[in-house]
What does this fold into?
Amino acid sequence: MGRATTAQRLKEVMEKRDLRQVDVLDMAKPFCEKYGVKLNKNDLSQYLSGKVQPKQDKLTLLGMVLNVSEGWLMGFEVSPDRAT
It folds into this structure.
């Protein structure tokens, strides 16, 4: 079986934690303000559909928001646990 996609991993963690897109966006607000990264509904929708891959800054932001490693989000077979 091939490597999981970022879209699949985002959906997986959101389903597991019963999060909607609006929940993720709300959780992201403090990180967006702190790091000056914009994440909007359109961005998240495109990442979840697989149409667009998040660039490094947004991938890092999503990793922090969801408390998972960027490598795992990218589909690599690594631990989803975020390094502290």
About this structure: The chain has five helices and no strands. The radius of gyration is 12 Å. Helices lie at 6-16, 21-35, 41-49, 56-66, 70-73.
